[in-house]
DNA sequence: AAAAAAC
């Protein structure tokens, strides 16, 4: 526990302004002197030099890249793919930076990914932000804010999605992680607001006019930041809904001056049930991470929010990088005459994320494998996913005990402040190794993340796609490693298929594994350690795979053998399970 | 299929 407290040290207040500039620093944009100045200001002032974690990297014991080299390489690559957007939540950051990165890129983002649109009277895409101004009178203020935040060219989801939303249509948008989805709804919502509710000129009626729902606090916070950046210079009241802000809105007068609310569902539902919130004037409702929001655990809450949005001309939109059939059906049912657009291949990670699978025989082999990995040169920060809160805590402790520097931990069991601090350290590049649960899997946009390690196997293809999507954002390269044990074998093939589909390679023997359903049944049926994979190393993979079918019965054999006094070694040589 | 997250 002591070690864990270490994790929560460094009580840096989460500060949006500062955060924004952190992001800029990462981009080390050239040719934007205004931004550069700001960056410099922070560099020499509030922001510690360590913000540039490459410096750390240089001095750190286990880090391979040198300061300049890393950044250079990174920059060069970024140029190749600038246009995709990020996932659901991305900050504009990537996108915007994207713009600056794209300076040398002649390719149009929108041509990079195939975009498919379905629906009636689909508006054509806009090739540039200026085109949005011409076609839809996108406000000069928004254009200015786009430019000052470094957004030069719309990504695929932006050029297709923004016109649809500006025309007031309902939208289901599927676009890979890190391709700028957040901005794709931020712009139209702000454009539609017009005069702030608080201003005398407002004709919008009383009460909040736009609601954005996201599955985690961290993501809601990030979206809020994005809204604030695009709203700069306007008096819109954009509220990140929390217990504290909800309290201040208990007063109806204050409430009626709010333009946009960004919230997690339950928080909103609580206020609705209190009677301290009225959504009858909401004209725009966005579900970010839509498939997650339509999960059974969230569905009821979301439906309650939807039901509370009673304005007849409400526009609804859902965004995600993944949208399984079940979720899509639910989404389509709540939309009116929707347009559905898919950027790239649905449910496929970005090809610029280099993915690999690493076999670790069992749980006990994971930590040594990770420690070995972290003792060699790597690219910080590394984001490590585990399956539960206790495992996140204990893995972080283990890493600290083993001398890994700058380890952080983030899960929903931590206090609000601890969570905020962890995010801040991450944003500043102070974390080299961040151990987290599924809470970080979706939407979070940390530009610097080079590597994702799935220490615990993801529990779904969607989880896999979102987790590894924390890297490779806004056209950058990324690397994702997934550990698998014998117990994960039943789910291995589905992940392997995803990897193949997105252009990375997997060992041939994995693809020869039988159908997941069949394997799963075997795994559930008492095969303790279906360690056929382990055997594969000794006796050749194909043989091992054949033997796998014998594993189910092996326990019985084992018991019998034990009775006969046969050693497990002998058993193993016969190909039976231990 | 299974856990995490939401207050």
UniProtKB/TrEMBL annotation:
Which residue windows does the record flag with biased composition (Acidic residues)?
A: 83-95
Pfam families, alphabetized:
DEAD (PF00270), Helicase_C (PF00271)
Q: What is its EC number?
A: 3.6.4.13
Q: Which UniProt keywords are given for this protein, alphabetically ordered?
A: ATP-binding, Helicase, Hydrolase, Nucleotide-binding, RNA-binding
**What Gene3D superfamilies is this protein classified in?**
P-loop containing nucleotide triphosphate hydrolases
Q: Which reaction does it catalyse?
A: ATP + H2O = ADP + phosphate + H(+)
Q: What is this protein called?
A: RNA helicase
